[in-house]
Amino acid sequence: MAFALAFETRGLPADSDDLFADADPHAELAEHYQIDPNHLDGWSIAEQLSKLGKEIADPQLRAFARKIAAKSVLRRAARLVGPIRPALRRIVEPFREPFRGELDIDRTLENALGRRRPKPEDWMISDRREKQPQVVLMMDVSLSMSGRNLALAALATAVLAFKIRPPDLAVIAFDSSARTLHELGQSIGRQRLVESILAQPARGFTNLEEALRCGARELHRARSVDRAAILITDGVYTTGGDPLPLARNFRNLHVILTEDYKMNEDLCRRMANAGKGKLFKVKGFEDLPARMLDIANRVLR
Question: pLDDT tens, 75-117?
């Protein structure tokens, strides 16, 4: 496992070793988390980063730990996603370019009906082109998400980031307030996106109203006809107002309900219905990454 950790540090900045010239960061992390160095790997670090009482005070060591953890999260996501096949949509439009698409005989005849000579715009072609959905993901990062839950949420986000072009994915984190970690149109790498999630302290209350307000504002910037929003929640808000009125501002608001003893399934269902989306359930956060892949394959295609 020590070799695994060394492997996961590849790709760090060239000067990263200079930051720890007088210390072994692996040993420091193992000592900090009280984990046998032979069992310390990127995923175990991801699970520890936001745990109460496990915060890393040294900013350089904290950044180092996030990089290792993010690389591990991305590797897990890549294995889960497998080969990436772009989603296609059928386009019917007037003929403009030679050798593009196939003649749509039915639509062409319909347009030319009653004319002695078809006009150029009557000729219609059918083509299949890659869909470019734009998605706004709203994820709870309140106190209940600390530790392993946040690592699994980061993994689920990484799965989505492999299925959607990074500029077409916005990520909003919410606790007592909401903040945009990644805007639509912003071109950052997947690793930086995962690092920004793992950097969340996982503290505070749950403000669903503010999450939907921020999410609707971001989705308003989307230009694709294939746009959607995904909300990860147990449906229990501990601060802010009723989120249901704001859910009506969405089109294709899909709610992923993380089931537990205190969940509010009724509110989650009503939010999905108000936002003209679907309700998806997961038994626990362990199932969240696979469920996210299922949603990406079924709903966003």
Answer: 999 999 987 665 555 665 676 766 666 776 777 777 778 777 7
Strands (E), the chain: 88-94, 102-103, 124-130, 134-140, 169-174, 178-182, 227-233, 253-258, 279-282
**Domains of the chain from N-terminus onward:** 2-81 (no CATH), 88-130 (no CATH), 134-298 (3.40.50.410)
d(CA 174, CA 79): 28
193-216 pLDDT tens trace: 999 999 999 999 999 999 999 999
Helix (H, G, I), strand (E, B) or coil at 1: coil
* Amino acid 203: pLDDT: 93
Place of tokens 């946040």: 150
Give the integer Cα–Cα distance in Å for 108 and 122. Answer: 6
Q: How far apart are CA 157 and CA 44, in angstroms?
A: 18
Q: Which residues of 102-123 are buried (b: 16+ CB within 10 A; e: fewer)?
A: eebeebbeebeeeeeeeeeebb
Within 8 A by CB and 6+ apart from 65, the residues are 25, 29, 45, 49, 56
Residue 253, strand partner residues:
229
C-beta of residue 62 within 8 angstroms of C-beta of residue 68? no
Tokens of 277: 């989306």
- Selected residue with higher pLDDT from 99 and 21: 99
**CA distances in angstroms from 22 to 11, 58, 61, 193, listed in the order given:** 21, 14, 13, 30
Please list the alpha-helical segments (H only) found in 100-207: 105-112, 148-163, 190-198
Is it the case that residue 265 has pLDDT exceeding 90?
yes
